[in-house]
Design a protein that fits this description.
The chain is built from 17 helices and twelve strands. It is of the alpha/beta class. It has two domains: about 180 residues, Rossmann fold, CATH 3.40.50; about 170 residues, Glycogen Phosphorylase B (Rossmann fold). Strands 9-8-7-10-11-12 form a six-stranded parallel sheet, sandwiched between helices. The longest helix has 30 residues. The protein is globular, with a radius of gyration of 21 Å. It starts with a helix and ends with a helix.
Amino acid sequence: MDARAAAEVPAGRGRYVRELVRELAVLDAEVDVVLYGRRSWPLAGSSWRLIRTRDPLWPVHAGLAAARRCDAVLAANSYLMAAAAGRSSVAMVHDLFGFDRRFGAPAGGAGERLTLPLAAQRAGGFLCNSKATRDDLVGRFPQLAGRTAVVPLGVDARFAQAAAGDVPARHGLDGPYVLAVGTREPRKNLPRLVEAFAGLPNELRERHLLAIVGRPGWDDADTERLASAHPEVVLLGYVEDEHLPALYAGATAVAAPSLAEGFGLPVVEAMAAGAPVLTSDRSALLEVAQGAARLVDPLDVGSIRAGLAELLEDAGLRERLAQRGRERATQFSWRRTARETLDYLRSVTSTFAAGNSRDNAVSS
């Protein structure tokens, strides 16, 4: 497994790798998980193979080494690794934003546009984190329709057990607040969220802060400019994983009006923590929310503002959405993600082994 993100990416794909490996380690004693990276991360039950090569050669070296050593290769962060490993590999498809220049970071998007077609020719399978992501993948590469599986992401049990305690105050949040979580990049739609919040009626805006958690990403100048113009908007930057459940639990509402998401992990985490959620009426967010969130048009500041006002004014609505969200979140777990991932890896490698047996029989 490509586990570079465990040590190199604090959120997002790093969270996916760390949670998946933890569950794989306890799921099946007969499975040895070999992690490939540039530096190790303390994950119990796994062994590391460190390759110091830099990109873009790292995925090639790791894919070739993993294919020689392992029965199955999960390319969790690199289509090039899947292409190098060949038919015993499964490529994880987090999203297809690299193919949409509005959403994908310029450098990363170019790399995905070059390497996913290679993986489409050589990899044994493709694991997608939502039906929306699978539909996008198959829409661009119809030949992959029979080589895909959908395995949703999970949510850690600690989110369902969370209480706010003193964590919000430790981050400067001494009163009611609306929380937004995610790397600050155009796809997260934060400028429209800030505009919507700043345009709320005075009595609502004066009683609440908008707290935005997440590292600066690419092209986040508009978010910083707007936040600096509105003292009721606070950019908290990166927050440690262990503080996130309490911040969700203490929020009056959680806002995630992204323009697009491959899955939308903050939405599930917020629902698990009992926070009422506002999110977008499209992409995987609609799929994940399923009636457990207040949906808005992310392109319409007025729609976002109306949704925020309704949530902040209506305690009954918040209570109903919080209850529905908790129920919806129980359908997502990292144990399920690990089990279904392992099942798919086995199905791909068994197909690959059967194909090799037929080829050997023909050649003999």
